[in-house]
Amino acid sequence: MRNPLSDKVIKMKPSGIRKFFDIVSEMPDAISLGVGEPDFDTPWNIREEGIYSLEKGRTFYTSNAGLLELREAICEYNERRFQLMYDPKKEVMLTVGGSEGIDVALRAMLNPGDEVIIPEPCYVSYLPCVQLADGVPVTISLKNENQFRLTKEELEAAITDKTKILVMAFPNNPTGAIMTREDLEAIAEVIIKHDLYVISDEIYAELTYSGNHVSIASLPGMRERTIVIGGFSKAFAMTGWRLGYAMGPAMIMEQMIKIHQFAIMCAPTTSQYAAIVAMRDCDKDVVHMREAYDQRRRYMLNAFKEMGLPCFEPKGAFYLFPDIREFGIPSEEFATGLLKAKKLAVVPGDAFGDCGEGFLRISYAYSLEELKTAVGRLAEFVEELRAEQ
Amino acid sequence: MKNIRTKILKLLENNSKMDTKDIAVVLGMDESVVINTIQDMEQEEIICGYNTIINWDKTDDERVTALIEVKVAPQRGEGFERVAERIYNYEEVTSLYLMSGGFDMTVFIEGKTMKEVAQFVARKLAPMEGVLSTSTHFVLKKYKENGTKLEQDKKDERLVVTA
């Protein structure tokens, strides 16, 4: 029989998260700081709207781009929150989570051999999606001493005459880093100079703890070269609804919708109806959740300070990225040791790119009580490890 | 200042057992400020007490709660205050509110049995000077109290490790 598989797919590395998940799954009594999704339930008024739409029998396909009413709500929301102006008819599409938006944007924009710059550590899907779209990923290793922000020098050094796209995500998973307006202005200059495009994954935009999030698309000259990826999963605690959106210039969106039309058809209808309420009627819920995350963030930072584990202050998302290089062992070995000795799961930093080696991703999407227990175990482990050495 | 007070109150409203060190850490302020602010609010009777939310149904104790709508004739010069005081001084009364609408006061009563509650209404509340009428409703089941769901059945169903 012929080999049924694609060489391209076989060459793709499996996700480092997946490998660690398999180990953790064999320890049912382990506790975890390893999740990448909110611990809150979706606000009830959103869920209620989803239920109502089902009661009404709204169970058909929507248009490929998504319900117009939702696209309008998304545009109003983005203007109100982030000063981003898009035409709901031509410049917005609903996707199956932010992930689909990234995939479709890359496929719509890349020709074979085009280079895509990916600052790491980052979410696990960018690099494989570039490869699947026949692009060539070029990674940048962001640095702890820069609070894992992308600098103009780092970007400049990675650019060749084949570079076409920069994929970046701030607030960042796994580091919690954000980019201020000044940080973004510095790199926007380089992007414009080299005529690059940006796919800006801003799924954590609402979870920013020092002032309001700034979108790179809101900077002069950037709107026409940026695809903004947004969504409902993080800020509205809607991960399981699988709904996100992409906004960008009509000329690119048109081609993205074409791919989406053939591959997906449309995003889930129930989720789309529910999301209208999220965009229009949930500011209070978002504030409430953001405050809770911010409190936990302070709690965790203080806990790391007390155990003497260096960690830069993350200003976004719901992760900390502590530095464990003092122990001189690989992140995976540390995480596996912690899991075996204290039944606590955290994600090794190198799951998010080689430069994450020597770090851990710690999620604080847990109640304060759970964090307390977990931090206690981590502190014990750190102390024992130090005593051994 | 008002902002600090509100932030502390919001935390204590959800968990009156939260210790001052944790409050200080999560709000990013000095513990001494937290302690002083709480003491001030206790003295000013902004914080009036620290109760516990108990699901008595899960204990062997027999408890009955009733909500009683009371119509009251306000007294000259004293309005509802005098009658309110007469009602709330009874130990059986757990909450008392002055209401807008079709009746004047809501009285929450707790007793060991329905009979005990009924007797309280018949002997103490209904005959009270100024009380015009009462309408007693017994609570059959408590689902939520002071913002807390009594039967949460809350398991973390998230996958333990996700990207």
Count of the domains of chain B: 2
Major sheet of chain B: 4 strands, antiparallel
Give the biggest sheet of chain A: 7 strands, mixed
Tell me the name of the CATH class of the largest domain in chain B.
Alpha Beta
Distance between the termini of chain B: 40 Å
Number of strands of chain A: 12
What is the C-alpha radius of gyration of chain B, as a whole number of Å? 21 Å
Low-confidence stretches of chain A: none
Q: Helix/strand-derived class of chain B?
A: alpha+beta
Overall pLDDT of chain A, averaged? 97
How many beta-strand runs of chain B?
6
β-strand percent of chain A reads 5-15%
Discrete helix count of chain B: 5
Integer count of domains of chain A = 2
Kindly name the structural category of chain A: alpha/beta
Question: What's the CATH topology label of the largest domain in chain B?
Answer: Alpha-Beta Plaits
Helix percentage range of chain B: 25-40%
What is the structure about, briefly put?
The complex is a heterodimer of chains A (389) and B (163). Chain A is an alpha/beta fold and 389 residues long. Chain A has helices spanning 7-11, 16-25, 44-55, 68-82, 97-109, 126-132, 152-158, 181-193, 250-263, 269-281, 283-307, 331-342, 368-388; strands spanning 31-32, 92-95, 115-120, 136-141, 163-168, 197-201, 226-231, 244-247, 319-320, 344-345, 347-348, 360-363.
